[in-house]
Amino acid sequence: MVLNKPSGLPVLRSEMFYQHTVMAYLEHLHPPPKHNSSLPNPNPSVAAPVHRLGVGTSGVLLCAKTKLARAGLSAALQHRKMSKYYLALVSIPPGSQPLEDRFSVDHPIGQVEYCPGLSIAAVCTHGKKSLSHAEVLHRGSAAAIVRVNIPTGRPHQIRIHMAAHGFPLVGDPLYGVGGVPRQDILYDEHSKSRDHARTTPLPRDCGYHLHAHQVHFTHPMTQEQLVVQAEIPAMLRADSPLLNKQVMATAVPCPSENTTGLV
Question: What's the pTM?
Answer without folding.
Answer: 0.84
